[in-house]
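Researcher: Before we compare anything, I want clean individual predictions. No alignment, no superposition, just each chain on its own. First chain goes here; please echo the sequence and then give the structure tokens.
Model: Echoing the first chain and its structure:
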Amino acid sequence: MQNNANAGHGEEENRMNTGVWVVLAFHLVLKAILCCIIRLLEIHYTETAIADLERLPPRVAGQIMRKIDRLQHGLQGDVKRLTQFDCDYRLRSGDYRILFDVEGQSVIIQRILHRRVAYD
């Protein structure tokens, strides 16, 4: 009889352990999602930057938009801090330069220009 009682107890214990692992996994996933959400930077475009983007060929504009989207996760990629210039940073995308500022949790895209005229 004791074996049957212990067998039932073992199944219940396994279910409890599984429940603990499910709760722990859920907690870890939720924590990871919240960390990602909190760290995302907001991207804003000036009217001038939108006009710059509209003048570009669709393929180039798409490439640039993908680069800009990556800035939400931080200043990654070919980002360089500018000195003695109107904008604080530049992001390189092929022959184009994305000129932007960072204010708090916001990235403000100021201009998107070909490298020949970006720093004039």
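Researcher: Okay. Second chain, same rules.
Model: Second chain and its structure:
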Amino acid sequence: MTAPDRGRQMSSRQVVPTLGVFAVIFDEAGRLLCVRLNYASKRWTTPGGRVETGESPLEALKREVLEETGLSITPGELLGVYAKPEEDDLVLSFRATVVGETAWQANDEIAELGYFGRNELPEPASVAARVRMRDAFQEQGTVFRVVETKAQ
């Protein structure tokens, strides 16, 4: 197979990569909003999730942030593109501004949320989430990273 034709195949069908979106939201003190999952690994990450069929990445970002945090946002600039080849996953990270808020309480998806400074990022977090969190504090423009996840 040539490089341009090299899509991942399983059982003679081509696998389409999943697309995820995550928000970078800072409070007035410059701390990053993180959420702790209430399922699977129960790790910390930034708010976000999968883009559903027929949904734009920005609409998915608004939906996921509202579902997970009770915050209404306006998506901003694209901060990062993260590829996880072993998982056939592509993730976009966007800056976001809070424009509204509804009451929030722990639920089946999110156990807790909080704002964290650059030197106090929450653990445990996946390798990919830690990379996105650290990049959120950098003033480097849009980044593209390939994240190796095999060792998690």
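Researcher: What stands out in the second chain?
Model: Residues 1-10 have pLDDT under 50 and may be disordered. Additionally, DSSP finds two helices and ten strands in the chain.
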